[in-house]
Write a structure and sequence with these properties.
Largest sheet: 5 strands, antiparallel
Oligomer: single chain
Shape: elongated
Strand order of the largest sheet: 1-8-5-6-7
Number of strands: 8
Strand content: 25-35%
Amino acid sequence: MNREIELISQTAKQLSETISNLNNNIVDLYENMDRSSLTIDERSELILIYQALNELSEGVESLKFLGKPVREEGQLKKNSNGRYILGEHELTSGHPIEVFDEDGNVFYQSRIEHSGGDYYIVSLGRGVPIKNIRCRIR
């Protein structure tokens, strides 16, 4: 792995752990706090902190996702029961997936969903057929 990428990855992991710890501490404080004694400004600030931590938690989940090993890479195929598979893995609604972008020569994160009798990849849109699209799962 490129040294700069390795350094960024290590820093992101440390940041992820710090945010997770902060989030746990804030949730504990929030759940055990007598909010009725707070002023309007204090309650407003508390709500903003809580909302910001929820958004940071989404980033933490993305960083955790990157830490998982790639389990399978290849082209999506449709099996006999109408679901898509990647290797031995059957994919259903909500399944996270990385889609290969040939123009950018990069994988980007998305998920599988179902609508109108078939599955689609959210980032590609409902009208885009997904059979034989290059993907990977972690």
